[in-house]
Structure formats: C-alpha cells, structure tokens
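[retry 2/3] UvrABC system protein A: previous attempt timed out, resubmitting with same input.
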Amino acid sequence: MTHIADDHAVIRVHGARENNLRDLHVDIPKRRLTVFTGVSGSGKSSLVFDTIAAESQRLINETYSAFVQGFMPALARPEVDVLDGLTTAIVVDQQRMGSDPRSTVGTATDAHAMLRILFSRLGRPHIGPPGAFAFNVPSVRASGAITVERGTATKAVKQTFSRTGGMCPRCEGRGSVTDIDLGRLYDADKSLDEGAITVPGYKAGGWNYRLYTASGFFDPAKPIRAYTERELHDFLYREPTRMKIEGINMTYEGLVPRVRKSLLAKDREAMQPHIRAFVDRAVTFTACPECGGTRLSEGARSSKIAGVSIADACAMQISDLARWIAGLREESVAPLLTALRHTLDSFVEIGLGYLSLDRSAGTLSGGEAQRVKMIRQLGSSLTDVTYVFDEPTTGLHPHDIRRMNDLLLRLRDKGNTVLVVEHKPETIAIADHVIDLGPGAGAAGGQVCYEGTVAGLRTADTVTGRHLEDRTALKEKVRTPTGALEIRGAATHNLRAVDVDIPLGVLTVITGVAGSGKSSLVHGALPGRAEAAGLEVVAVGQEAIRGSRRSNPATYTGLLEPIRKAFAKANGVKPALFSANSEGACPQCNGAGVIYTDLAMMAGVATTCEECEGKRFQPAVLEYRLGGRDISEVLAMPVEGAREFFGTGGDAPLPAARRVLDRLADAGLGYLSLGQPLTTLSGGERQRLKLAGHLAERGGVYVLDEPTAGLHLADVAQLLALLDRLVDAGKSVIVVEHHQAVMAHADRIIDLGPGAGHDGGRIVFEGTPAELVAARTTLTGEHLAAYVGAAAG
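[retry 2/3] UvrABC system protein A: success.
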C-alpha cells in the first residue's frame, strides 16, 4: 500500500504569469533531472528562477520571525496561481563573482580561510592568529588614555592596542598598483591654448578646460614641456584649492587627481566606449613591488610550513596544492587537513584543478564562476533538495561536458530534484524529462510547447525539436588571410613563451579545453600587438550588462538620443521632454511607470502609476507626435516594427535610428521592445545586445569571448551569418569558442593545450578545420571530427 506522503511526487506550477509566461501549467517530476529548453527569451529563466526558485526562497524566509526577516531581502510572491510540492532550492547561477580585487578563488570557497588557520597553527616562525595571514585585514596599532569609572572615583588608564593583519601596506591587499601614463593626459609640445589636454571631456573652451587656462598658476600660452617644476606640480598634482575663476567660485585641483576621481573611479563597463578606450590606454596595472603581487605583508610571507609560505601555497595550481596538503602529517590539525583536502579535491573533480587560490574572482568566466559555486554542493549529505542550474556547460570544452553531466546525474541519484536550463544537445540528451518553452521569444514565448522524454523531443514539431540534430558542415572553401599579427614569446599566466601568427581578414577560432590559455593569449598578448600594428581592437567579453529597471535597449544602444531629437525638432520643443529620466518624467512616479510601496519585512508592492498609466511620461508630453505616434508608443514598438517606422518610406524616416535598429536585428533581437527593461532580459539576450552595441565601433579586429553563451541551437546559424558579414566588411574576427558549429565554420583554428593549467599553454594545432579533423591529434580535433561526421551522416 502506497503511503500518502509518497503522493507528492511532482512540483505543480499552475497559472504562472511571471514576465512573459502566459498562464503556464506544468508538472515537474521530483527526484529526476529535468532540462528546460527553448530559444533565448522564451521564458525558461522566468519559470525556473523567477517562479520556482524564488518562491522556495521566499517560503524559507517566512519560517523566520518578523524581527529576523527585517534584516533579510524582502521577496515578492511570483505571479502564479498554484505552486505545490516545492522543496528547498539551491540556486547555482552564472552571475559573475564580485570584481573586488580582494575577492579570490580562495576567499570565495573558504579554502583560504582554512589555509590561514593551518598556517597560524603550524607556520614557523609563529606570527599570530589566522587574521595575520589575511590580506583583507590591515595591521593596526593604537595607544591612548581611557577613563575607568570605579564607584564614585574615575581614573585615567593608559592603554595600548595592536592587531596583526596580513594586508600588504603598499597595495592594501589588492596585489597590484595603478599608474597613469602622463603622456596620455596631455601633449607636452602644445600649450593649453593650443589644446594640450587630451583627456575626454576636457575640450578647449569647456569648463573643465577653463579651470586650468584661467587658474593663474601657469601661462596658458607656454608649452607644457617648458613648465618649471613648480608649474608642472600645480598643473598635475596640486591639492584642491578654492578660488574664483571668471567670477565663479570653483575648486581647482591637479589634472591627475581630478582624472582619478572623475574617470578612474567609475566602473569600466559603465563607461562610454571612447572613455573606456582612453582609460585602457592611460592606466597601467603593475604587480605591487613590495609584496610581489601576493597581497600579503612581509610577516605573513615569512611564516612557512615545510619551506612553503601561504603566498606560495595560494600561487600553486590547485591540483599541486592538493598533493602538497595530502603529504602533510600532523595529528593536531587532522580534521582541518581532511576538510581542506576535500575542498581542493572537489576543485580537481569539477575540472578546475588548473586554477590557483590567489586568482581574482572577477577574472573567472561565467562557467568557471558557476562551477566554483558548485564545489560546496559536491560533498553535501542533503537529499530531497531542488538544485537549479543555469547553463552549467557554459565555458566548457566538449571534452569537459561529460564530466559535468556525471556531476548532475550524481546529484539526482542522491535523491535530489535537478532543474537545468540548457541549450547544449549533450546535456539535453541525459535528461529524464524535458520541458520545451516557446514557440518564440519575448511576447511570442511563455508557453509549454513540449513535455516528455528526449526521444519525443527529437520528433516534436518545436523549434528545439527541429534543431536538436543540427550540425554545421565544414566550409568547402575557406578565406585567405590578408596578413597576420605576429605574437612572440607570450607568457601571460600559463602560456609557455608562445609564438603564433594570428591571421587577419578571416574568421579565426581559438579553441582548447577550459584553462588551456585561450583567454590569456587573446586578452593578454593580442591587444598590445594589435595596437603596435596600428589596429584598433573591439573586445566583446562576458561581463554582465549594468543597468537598472529604467535602462532598456533604446538607452543602452544610444538609440533614444536621435529619437528624442527627432521628436523635439518635429514639435519645436526641448529633447529633454522625451526622457522619462528627465523633464518629461511623470511627476507622480518620477518616470518609473510604477509606484513602489515598502512594507518593511513584507515584500514591497509595485502598482501601476494611475497618473501616467505606466507610460512613464507626463500627459502633456504624450500630446507631441512623430509620424503619428507619441514617445510611449514608439518605445513599446518591437525592433522590427521600429525599423519599418524609421526606415526609408516609413512614417518617420530617421537614418540614425535605423542604423542602430539594423544592428539589433542583425544580432537576432528583432522581437525586443525598445523600452523593455534590461532587468527582464535573459542572459543570451544581454550578450547579443552588448554585441549589437559594439558593432558600431570602428575597430579593425573584433575579439569575441564565447558569443554562443545563452544561444539556442536555432540562433547559432544567425550568429555565424553575422560573423561572416563582419569578415566580408573587411574586419578580422577572432572568437574564443567551444561550440563545434563555430569551429566548423571557421577559416582558421588555433588550438591550445594539450591540457589545462601547467599542462596547457602551448599551441597544439594551427590550420583549417578540415586539417584539424583529418589530423585528429588533439582533444578538439577528436570532438570536431565526431561532430562533422554526424553532420555528414
């Protein structure tokens, strides 16, 4: 007889309406591996993360008292009618780890904390507690008098306090120091009157410029090269000084500290392209000369175990560090050694043994960051937990995907429910249950198109089903390079004095297992060589798009600027009226479109603004029209509709807007609304939006880092067509990629390896994809041969 408790075998989701989900109904089997498929933007993340995982977290938070909940983030209940059968959800997403330079692989996984305890117990000479080995803790000394009250008497007592920390005092635990190349700030042969300052935003005649020309500290007609030592100091480094310039009270400050505050303090990704390019040229990061880049003080580096300091241990490849820890025999710290060995072995097992603990967390790719987060789960004894993964194969070579699949199956076999959002056929193939969402993206998605087995999906008439067996064939004819970038002696990270000629004028794909040195070659050695050759590099990485709920595709790509000006010109008013963040904003909701009500420890409530009905603009602004539409109607249009509206023969021909819209359509985003908040876009949509933004830049060399991340099988063909158009337009395109379709479509392949970490860093193949397949001498060659063999079959 079946026990009543065994009836709860599914997670029931009925009437889900989060984001673009359309009253969705689905039953997800528990203790099985369920893969969610569908084109980018079809609603997979809205169902798995924003509905199931979010409600699980909210219900767990509600088990705490109201007092405790007051200190926790308030989570709103997802838009869903019924959500039954939930278990505790552990989310392992692809959010990049913090970019704080003091955040490392070691600090993110507790491995560094355990090492600190180990060295504080066994290190000789003994220098202090675990904090003495922490590069986040500065050494502090203080002395003074304190007043002690005893009964009716008071007495002054002298006290001395000291704390030993491991932070390097020179770089403050960052490991590197920044230096500004003064030659990039000004032209020494020119005077200020001749426009000597070359910093963006310091245009001759502007206020930033007049601050220096009218300061009176130097002659603006004299070339900077002729300045006296005092004049040069006042120009570059003078402390903030209040003075009256042209009748206005202002603060004068030397150019170097002013540039540091105004430009270098900003997040690099949030900068405009021309400012970002200036910062990349003007600022150099060098290893701290005092600590050698270890981040640690001299005392922390002096204490050793068997001749190895904590700096040496953190710099080791993790697989080597695991062997060193395994060789330590000390009964007094046996439990600590066991826990540390388990953590380090988990790194190796998950395919990250090539990392080192001192690697900055911000330099990890999305796939690496996700696998680092998985380490905590590998040895867990918890069962009946729901694990939620967001494309766990991102950044993995086909050779490594099998290992990731084994880990997912292991978690399932322990009695857990495993939910995976994925595009790769190799991971879809191991699913017990598949839920395919679609049929399209955005407003055209949000429905369940198929539910069942993988075999059933292959025959299903859905976008995923039709493309599941897609294989890109090798090119019959490859392009001939027009030149080459000669890289000699590249030794960044694990590269071993690599000599390679990267061809120009063609599509080149850099391949190799994770950790083989691909990014080190492309981001470490290539930009400097390209600049020396007079070529401008446009790099499109995996960094997340930064933006609030007020940001949208129109603001991110600069599309809104020509549209605002066109509205202003057509109606004889100011452009600022057509910005929901400026003068045209609805006064009731300040241009947000919704009113947020804070309910303390309860979830806040967002209600549509009654004044503007969610349109974000003042009613008076909506009276102004362009081509028969107001600004809110234009922002509600999809990209494809806006292309017609602003195109030649459209209701409001506007070439500047049409060019931006064409780039968005080329990147496969024709369905996006111009005013859709960036916070509602999927990972794949954000990646392509970023690519569309970079297409406007006039670079000769495009470097793309895994552009297929987050892309559905059906979208890969469109990406390949876009890469072809870039090359045919005279660009050189270099792609770091694991997807076999991109490899097969390349003109040239450069394969690094043969392994990861110190087993990699060498060029193991250079040539065409056909030559790689014929040779089959590398892991990449073997997998590509199997892939194109399936295509031929």
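[retry 2/3] UvrABC system protein A: The first strand starts at residue 10 and ends at 16.
[retry 2/3] clearing retry counter.
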